[in-house]
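One thing: mind reviewing this one?
=====
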Amino acid sequence: MKSRLRYAASAVTLLVAVGAGASRPVAASTARASAGTLTFHADLDSSYPVATCPSGYPDSVECFTRTATGLVAGLGAVEVTFPYFVDDAAAGCDVNEVKVLPTTARLRVSGKGEIEVRLPGAGCHARSGGPFRTEQPFTITGGSEAYAGVAGSGTLSDVSSGPPALKGKDTWTGTLIAPAASFDVTPPTLSGAANKVVSAPKHVKKMRVSFNVTAHDDVDGAVAVTCVPPSASLFKVGKTHVSCTATDSSGNTATTRFTITVKARR
């Protein structure tokens, strides 16, 4: 029966690493915070290769390991691992339905502690040839170190594409309340992004133009800026829009846009 199903979603472990060695931003996320409270929404692209089931699971259960990386505003670079289990022949479900099993998640924030999250599982869902979608509430039930006495709740929504890619998207939406913690949700401040006009020598169709855009963050100080096209690029005669981005170690991103105009001499 196991060959019939390659769609599933039920998180067991969510790992969060915060620091200067943050992963590249691969997920859109928004958050707002007050002291000790973080309200977040994060979309994470994921993959979920087949895994060996733990001892004691019946043959009707399929096991996978779901992984994802991205940035969550207020936390920083996020690495997510989802061992998850789907029952292909669950009691109470139709022969063409599967059930996501309940479990407990552990969220580890590097150097700050752990958070326990209870996932009750999802009910009977139809097996189909298209994306497999599940949604389940989660409850934050406890934590350690900076997250001692932590509480909160939210919703986990998963979309799984099925074989052969075994790719998906995980959406975490909720509120985290940690009395001993604080969350940075203020993006860096960008400076130096200003429209610029230059004159090209006669008959020249491209000109190298330099500019200097910097970023400062209240927590991290100076933050690296990425601009597309970058400074000192060759700009064609006419107008070219430049987009610049800076992201701090807590996953907050600032963006700006300006125009480089190269005028041809007649």
